[in-house]
Amino acid sequence: MRAAVSSNTALLVIDVQVGIIEGFHAYRGREVLEQINGLLANARASNMPIIYVQHDGEAGHPLEVGTEGWEIHPEIKPHEEDLIVRKRASDSFFETTLQHELEAKGTKHLIVTGCMTEYCVDTTARRAVSMGYDVTLVSDAHTTIDNNLLTAAQIIAHHNGLLDGFDAGAHAITVKPADEVTF
User: What pTM did the predictor assign?
Assistant: First the structure.
């Protein structure tokens, strides 16, 4: 079964930055970049809005503003027409222009990809649903790193299972692999 998306949909690419993919050696980093590239190509072919979220780390942080680690990964480099929203917290909506940008585009549905599954991806997806957006979390297009309790693979599997069906009223998160997301 293929999940269809409509013209009120935007692709959200969260924190796919050099400092996470290369610096932290994110789990399955290459595969996630490939999946995101495929989604980007499909979104561009459909004239779907693409929004990159870029985390601004403080001095000394692996994503310190202006450093190589802070840069959006060159393998998924934004095009001129793509929007970049900068943030300082796990929630991509917190003290950013993201909601304003989505409202201006008439967006009602987000396709979510990106880095740090248990932080920025999870928080943004849950917040989006509570704000009235439907979310498709692309199960094989987000990543993280091991922590002291779980491997990255376990964290990703846990969040894919936990978030599938998470809802707030009429809005929910649906988890699908990239090859089931149509544009």
Answer: 0.95
